[in-house]
Amino acid sequence: MLTNPANQRKHTRFQPRQVIYCQDLEGNVIGRIMNLSETGFMLMSEHPAEVNESQILRMDLPLTPPHQITATCETIWCQKSSYSQEYGIGMQIAQIDDLAVIALQRYLGDDNKATAA
Fold it and tell me: What is the pLDDT of residues 53-81, one digit of tens each?
């Protein structure tokens, strides 16, 4: 689904109705996802991230049954929040396996789980 060309996103972002935490490979929570699409997401974190940094991240999608996806993500932007002590971080999904894509599409397609942001 294409969005307004002014925001340059390929896919519509959805706001999760449940809290979805993003973790590193050791299981440390690095932030909570504020919006999500097939190709990226924005999270809020207590710690800043380096732009252009790649890392492997995990998130538990609240599906039935629950599904954990793992993806290589690149930090596109990071800025201090204007309404909290956290940082907003824009992440692009650089690499993800086919089963994780299917789970992500299933989650994003369920109106009870996410709303267009």
Answer: 999 999 999 988 889 999 999 999 999 99
State pLDDT tens for residues 13-38.
Answer: 888 989 999 999 999 999 999 999 99
**82 touches 111 (CB < 8 A):** no
The torsion angle over the Cα atoms of residues 32, 38, 40 and 44, rounded to 10 degrees, is -10
Q: Taking a C-beta distance cutoff of 8 angstroms, is the pair 93, 71 a contact?
A: yes
d(CA 69, CA 71): 7
Question: Of 16, 26, 38, which Cα lies nearest the Cα of 114?
Answer: 16
Is the omega angle on the peptide bond into residue 65 within 30 degrees of 0, that is, cis?
yes
DSSP 82: S
d(CA 35, CA 32) in angstroms, rounded, equals 9
**111: which 2 tokens?**
């109106």
- Whether 6 has a pLDDT exceeding 50, the answer reads no
Report d(CA 117, CA 106) in Å as an integer: 17
DSSP 113: T
